[in-house]
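Before surveying the methods themselves, let us examine one representative protein, written as a sequence plus integers encoding its fold.
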Amino acid sequence: MNDLPPLVLAAAAAVAVAVPVLGWAVLARPDPATVQTRDNLARGLEPAGRDTGARSRTSAGAGLVRALTPRGTAARLNRLAGTAGRPPAWPVARLVAAKLVLAAVGAGLTLLVFLASPGARMGLLGLVVTGVAYMVPELLLYSRGQERKAAIGLELADTLDQMTIAVEAGLGFESAMARAAGNGKGPLAEELTRTLQDIAVGQPRRDAYLALAERTAVPDLARFIRAVVQADAYGVSIADVLRTQAHEMRLKRRQRAEEKAMQIPVKVIFPLILCILPTLFIVLLGPAVMDMVAAFSG
């Protein structure tokens, strides 16, 4: 493969720097529903028509993003964002725009490299790079969601213990949830606080609990929510449900820890065979082999 000309490298660097900045500035606009809600809340506080041009540019940018995005991508990103806790810096509209921008950057770089050194292998590599670049925001969001789900699973047993103590002390279930949310600092506390806010604004308790299970996508938490909903429907004591669920969550956490401990020997085998044993053989058998070679050659 011939060396790439400096002009092509300079053009690739310029595209890599300019296109993401341009796309982020033009396409990554707030969601139109969010803008409309903020305008409704601020109605009467500022002169009307002051941001007409900005709103039209926002609508145009959002329309362009929707036109270039495959159907179902926004819904999938919205679901992943909910699992990841909806990071403020990663709204769905910005993620969709980032996917398009990264794909355009990958396609542009692929075109430049392909023009410099044409070939089927280079074209296939460019398609792979473009596809990976398109999926990078989604993969990052998925990774963030998995980390958050793991953190919720670790916090669940202790949170249920706190709620059990509060309920047995005479508090109601929602008051115990509020106390556990106030004492906690992790993602589970944030989700409990959001659930209480949903109930406070008028959402039925059953719907708020089920929305919590669907939003977090943690199997243990979903199982606990189903138990609470059934207890509320059939009049079962919530203290007994909390005590049983807390014991079960502690048992599952201990089983997961034991499972990971049992996986360690299997995971150590490959580094041991590939890295440690060859070095050990070289150190131990190397001098003997050298002496044998010297003896036979002499």
